[in-house]
Design a protein that fits this description.
Elements lengths: L1 H23 L17 E7 L2 E4 L3 E3 L1 E9 L5 E6 L5 E6 L4 E8 L2 E6 L16 E7 L8 H12 L3
Parallel strand pairs: 1-4, 3-9
Antiparallel strand pairs: 1-2, 4-7, 5-6, 5-8, 8-9
Amino acid sequence: MSRVRSIVAGLLGTAMLGSAFAAAAPRIHRTVLPPPTRLPTALTVDESEWFVRPSQRVVAAGDVSFTIYNRGMDDHDFVVLDATGARRGIDLAPGEGGTLTVNLPVGRSKVWCSLFEGTPTAHETLGMVAYVDVRPQISRPPTALERAARLRALEHGR
């Protein structure tokens, strides 16, 4: 019986010693970043009295398709500036929907209802305005070096 006890005691001692070394070892945590997702090139927009609500706040630069729904009781329009700075828009009766495809440059694009522009009752002034951030489309997954740089920036709060 004492031989069994000494074997059990030896095994327990070895296990405790092993866990003590494991606990003392430095831990390295590596954050695994998922590959970046492609940015959307289409979005829906609901507009009504007195709001404009895009389904996405970030889209890819280039041709972007807006599907707009006038959920309000008044006539509205939907206006955005394209890459050349030209105004592009669509008029919508109450309950009507439509699609507008615009080539957007990288930056921040304003989308709004331009009815009664320049007057105190301008729909934009009453809240019918929103902004969409336009970023370059990710055409390929980042390299290991790019992922490491991104991870370092995240770890240092940049």
